[in-house]
Structures are given as structure tokens and as C-alpha cells.
């Protein structure tokens, strides 16, 4: 057990009870894990696997049925620690009739910030999440992506050390997703610890340092994302374009070393990359179209 972990859970369990107090759903079963300062930690799992339950236990919004949980060195039920935590819930519960400025001002007041600090913090956050153009529009007019952005700004109002994000990218289009992932990486660059939940595998792979895979309320896998995905019994060498003769020479060299070529191909990028490059290119050159099979930014 490391002394300086930001989050420590030990055999943490939660069983929801029905109206008569009878055990109903075992939402989390004996979760033991540590989150270290400055890392982006991903809770990954299908719907109903216990991600939201875990985050709520960390905040002390739910009481564990069994086990222990400490956050920032305090037991989770001590709510004063929440002043150092930012939380983006799965569904934002923001006031629909306030605009972005008013929303952040309202939450700044809850943290007893002075008018001058509130204004400065509001300006910083609105710029960070890219809502300058919409800061005076009521939230009821916001798109899903804009709602997620103002939700994040609200979660950061108190400049928290630890940020808990419940499904930060759900419902966002690829551009909104990319922006949200960049914002999460920026939080890490600012020295914050981030715990995010997601059922979207690519999002977790792109931003998280370590992940835990939950299934049916149980921890199945935990580790460093790169280590978990690396296939150690193969070696990949990437070179510039090779002629067929060069390839067969390489094959004979490998043979000499007792190795075999398993495949020879051109690397592919992801559909997300292609999509983002297409949007960039369309902004730069509005009239341009690509012929079938052609792709923007391919060299
Ligand atoms: N308030 C509640 N009362 C009863 N069961 C609940 C409650 N909240 C969640 N559950 C159940 O607990 C399990 C885990 O839910 P949740 O933590 O929300 O999962 P996830 O966030 O991974 O989708 C699910 O089976 C869900 O139906
Ligand atoms: Mg959830």
C-alpha cells in the first residue's frame, strides 16, 4: 500500500437495497485499487458494471456496504475533502435558464469565492472549454457537446486537485470527443489527478495511463495501458517504402536469426484520424473534395 496514493479502496463493496431494505443488486464487489497523484486513471466496463457506483462512493454520496475507501488522505464520507475534488456527473444537473457566465458565478459563490476571483476563474474556464461564443446563451439552448463542456468548467471551478469524470465523452461527436480528450490531457499537464469512467474503449486507450476493467461489479484487470496492450513475443519494425527485392532480402536476414516474417503491409491509421484530418482539410480548403480512394493528408 503506497502512502501517498490519492485514492485507496480496500475490498470496497456496495449492495443496493430495495424499498424494504432487502439486498437487491451487488453493484460493486470487493474492489481494491490505488490511484497515484498526477495520473489519468480509467474505469472501463459495460453499462451496469459499477463505474458510477465507484465514483459516488469516492465522493461519499453513497455509503459502502463493506470495505474501506480513502480519498486525498481522508475517509470518503468526510465531505470536507470534496472541496478539493471536481465532479462531472453522468448527467449534468445544471440550471437550464442560466447562461454559462451565471452558472459558473453561481458555483463560485457556493465556494465562497470573491466577486473578483469568480470573474477571473469564469473567464479562464470559459476560454479553456471553448465556450466564449456562447457564454451568454441559456444552457437550455446548448448542444450535448456544449453541455458537457460547461459541466466540465463547473467541475473545475474550485481548481480541484482530483477530478472525477463520469462518462465525459458519451454522446459527443468525434470533434467534441477529441476536444474533451485534449482537455483531460491538459488537466494532467496542470498536475491534477483524473479518474474517468467510460464504456468507449478508444477514448480510454487514448488518454489513460492506467485502467481498471470492471465487469459485473468486479475488478477483472488493472494495469498500465501500454503494458496491457503490448504483445511481447513479436517485434514490429517500421520502415520507409520497400521494393519486393528488399523485402525478400529482409526475409532472408530474419531467417538467419531464426525469425519469420508474419505479415508485410502498409500501416493504417484510425477512422478517427481520417475523420479529423478531413474536417481540418475542409476548414482550410472549403471547396475541395476527394476522389474515391483518395484521403486527406496522405503522403
Ligand atoms: N440506486 C440504485 N438502486 C438499485 N440499483 C442500482 C442503483 N444504482 C445502480 N444500480 C445497479 O447497480 C449496478 C451498477 O450500476 P452503475 O454503477 O450505475 O454502473 P455503470 O456506471 O458501470 O453503468 C447496475 O446493475 C445498476 O442497475
Ligand atoms: Mg454509469
From TrEMBL:
Listed PROSITE patterns: ABC_TRANSPORTER_2
Keyword vocabulary terms for this entry: ATP-binding, Hydrolase, Nucleotide-binding, Transport
Keyword flag Nucleotide-binding: yes
GO terms, molecular function: ATP binding; ATP hydrolysis activity
Claim: Transport is one of the keywords in the record: yes
Stretches assigned to the ABC transporter domain: 7-241
Stored InterPro entries: AAA+_ATPase, ABC_transporter-like_ATP-bd, ABC_Transporter_VariousFunc, P-loop_NTPase
Coiled-coil annotated spans: none
Listed SMART domains: AAA
Top-level taxon in the UniProt lineage: Bacteria
PANTHER family in UniProt: ABC TRANSPORTER ATP-BINDING PROTEIN ALBC-RELATED (PTHR42939:SF1)
Protein name: Putative ABC transporter ATP-binding protein YxlF
Organism: Caulifigura coniformis
